[in-house]
Design brief:
With about 210 residues, this protein is of the alpha+beta class. It has a domain of about 55 residues: Head domain of nucleotide exchange factor GrpE (Nucleotide Exchange Factor Grpe, Chain A, domain 2, Roll). The protein is about 45% helix and about 20% strand. Its main location: cytoplasm. One of its GO terms (molecular function) is adenyl-nucleotide exchange factor activity. It is found in: Cytoplasm.
């Protein structure tokens, strides 16, 4: 059995390096002591007060621009809403005024027929048929009147192309100025100041 060597190798001495500092603390071997590993922020200097004020002023200007933009959009939206409300109100008013326009227009031939029949029947003496037609005519005209319809009977008035339709030009009778309606062949009608049918007339010429 051999004798064990009593001389053992002396271990090498190692010099421990001082840990790096980070964020005011010692940086461990695994990374930055702030917990972010090699964050890279620890080497940066703190922001100066001048830079902070400049950043705040820039942010304030951006916020003010946004406020102006949003206020402008708000004003436009409110204006559009008001216009929509006004248009809707006008449409409702028109519907109330002219809702019976088509129905009333279809009734006008009935009125014309009754007027023509009353002209052709004799008014003297008792005539039950004429009296019945006259009563019907009065009721019909009253119904049209309370519905906003008015007759256009312009005999002796100045010709108005917006309310009258000239179907003949005749020599001006004595005492009648040119451009005056001489005869009405068919009465016109309006509904809520809107011409439903112009009056058919003859006009005096000079």
């Amino acid at each position: 059995m051999t004798t064990q060597n009593q001389n053992e190798t002396k271990p090498e001495e190692t010099t421990a390096e001082a840990p790096a500092t980070c964020c005011g603390a010692q940086e461990p071997a695994g990374g930055c002591a702030c917990g972010e590993g090699a964050c890279g922020e620890c080497d940066k200097g703190e922001e100066t007060p001048e830079a902070t004020v400049e950043n705040l002023q820039t942010a304030l200007k951006l916020a003010e621009a946004k406020v102006i933009e949003h206020y402008d959009l708000y004003v436009r939206a409110m204006a559009e809403l008001e216009n929509t409300r006004r248009r809707a109100s006008e449409e409702v008013q028109k519907a109330h005024k002219f809702g019976i326009e088509k129905f009333a227009e279809n009734l006008l031939p009935v009125v014309d027929s009754l007027e023509k029949a009353l002209e052709l029947t004799k008014a003297d003496g008792e005539n039950p048929m004429r009296e019945g037609m006259l009563a019907t005519y009065r009721q019909l005209v009253h119904a049209l009147d309370i519905s906003g319809m008015k007759p256009i009977d312009p005999k002796g008035e100045k010709f108005d192309p917006h309310h009258h339709q000239a179907i003949a030009m005749v020599p001006a009778p004595e005492g009648v100025e040119p451009g005056v309606v001489v005869e009405v062949f068919q009465r016109g009608w309006t509904i809520a100041d809107r011409v439903l049918r112009p009056a058919m007339v003859s006009v005096a010429q000079g």
